[in-house]
Amino acid sequence: MAVDIQSPWRIGPVEIPTRIVLAPMAGVSVQAFRRQGRRFGAGLVCSEMVSCAGLSHGNERTLGYLRIGRDERPLAVQIFGSEPEVMAEAARMVEDAGADIVDINFGCPVRKVTKTGAGATLLEDPHRACRIVGAVVAAVDVPVSVKMRRGLGDGSRAALDIGPRLVDAGAAALTLHPRSAKQMYTGTADHALTAELVDLVDVPVIASGDVTSRARAQTLLDETGCTAVMVGRAAQGNPWAVGEIAGTGDGEPKREEVVAELVLFMRATVQELGEQRATGFLKKFYGWYLGRGRFPKPFKQELVQLATLAEVEERLFAAAPAAADVLARLEGELPAEDDVLLDLPISIYGGG
Ligand SMILES: Cc1cc2nc3c(=O)[nH]c(=O)nc-3n(C[C@H](O)[C@H](O)[C@H](O)COP(=O)(O)O)c2cc1C
Question: Residues near 134 by Cβ (< 8 Å), separated by ≥ 6?
């Protein structure tokens, strides 16, 4: 029988209301992105990958990734590293900060990460990978999941070898993005491998890669037996894709909705990162929101060149005046700020 995208499932004891997981994406998956994803129908959201060494050294910017709101839960925080003990310590901090799930990154293909023995490299070092999972599982009470690529080289089937071993080591769920590390984002995700992994393990498998529509999501659920699908690039500047997959919208927003969501996202990002960091961070989002034929191309170029976010907002409202009312409604529906911020334990910020 076909799986209902709107039906709940579990990772360990954590109940997840829908079959849609918002992907962890470095430089994208800030709290504002995760909250937006939940509003549009994602059942589970993930932080971007957080360096376990950065957490362990008390690096202020890394610790900032542990800012978790009640309204984004259930939330997985993803950590990466290569030393079991440091990963275990980082996992404890993640749990203290209020994450529902600790996710471990065995998929990052970027050289800066793989050269330290972390990320996708661990797919070909099963012994160490299992030691990391075992140490993290022993350190926390929340469930631990692992996100993998298929392997390092093209055609690799390493994920099928290591997946069941990671489950034996205590992983409560596996996500597979069935491209090789070498492929980066080229070619297509080979979800025949996802189906094979599903047959090999008795924990939920989440399928990641090229999920862009409800039809694609349903086909993957039906044909691979995966428990949930993950949406990444399709959701960049495009929460309406999540809505379409969830079955709550047609994926085609009006111009004023696009502007209202973008301005809401900008304001939330300023609160999160501060005005200066947010100004640079947001530039890539303008193209993502305004592209897809929604606004003429030069409009994005114009926004990127403006010096302040106040000017960007002004230009956006001038281009879609009806957005002000939509934004007021959206802001009115948000939970009050003191309802959503968890108090971080003082130890997380080293008291400072
Ligand atoms: C900009 C960007 C950053 C990413 N960062 C992470 C990350 O921090 N951790 C991770 O496990 N995967 C990361 N990924 C991979 C995605 O989670 C996902 O597996 C991949 O993009 C395939 O899914 P998609 O086709 O839906 O985008 C990243 C992908 C992109 C495009």
Answer: 84, 169, 170
The string of pLDDT tens digits covering residues 3-43 is 999 999 999 999 999 999 999 999 999 999 999 999 999 99
**Dihedral sign from CA coordinates of 225, 230, 233, 237:** positive
Does the Cβ of 24 fall within 6 Å of ligand 1?
A: yes
Per-residue pLDDT for 346 more than 60? no
Is 130 designated active site? no
Atom 10 of ligand 1, nearest CA residue: 24
Copy the structure tokens of residue 109: 């293909």
Say how many Å lie between the CA of residue 304 and the centre of ligand 1.
Answer: 24
Residue ranges of the alpha helices (H) in the chain?
A: 31-40, 52-56, 60-64, 84-96, 111-114, 126-139, 158-168, 192-200, 214-224, 239-246, 255-273, 275-290, 297-305, 309-319, 323-333, 337-340
66, 107, 124 from 127: Cα distances, Å? 29, 16, 9
Cis, bond preceding 204 (omega within 30 deg of 0): no
Q: Distance between CA atoms of 33 and 49, rounded to whole angstroms?
A: 14
The model's pLDDT over 208-233, given as tens digits with 9 standing for 90+, comes to 999 999 999 999 999 999 999 999 99
Catalytic residue among 52, 108, 130, 226: 108
Tell me the chain's radius of gyration from C-alpha atoms: 20
Q: Which residue shows structure tokens 């993998």? A: 148
Full-model pTM: 0.96
Q: What is the pLDDT of residues 108-162, one digit of tens each?
A: 999 999 999 999 999 999 999 999 999 999 999 999 999 999 999 999 999 999 9
What single-letter amino acid sits at 333? Answer: E
Residue 340: predicted pLDDT: 63
Residue in the structure block whose two tokens are 């362990």: 56
- Where residue 336 falls among pLDDT bands split at 50, 70, 90? confident
Burial tier of 43 (Cβ tally within 10 Å: 0-12, 13-18, 19+): buried
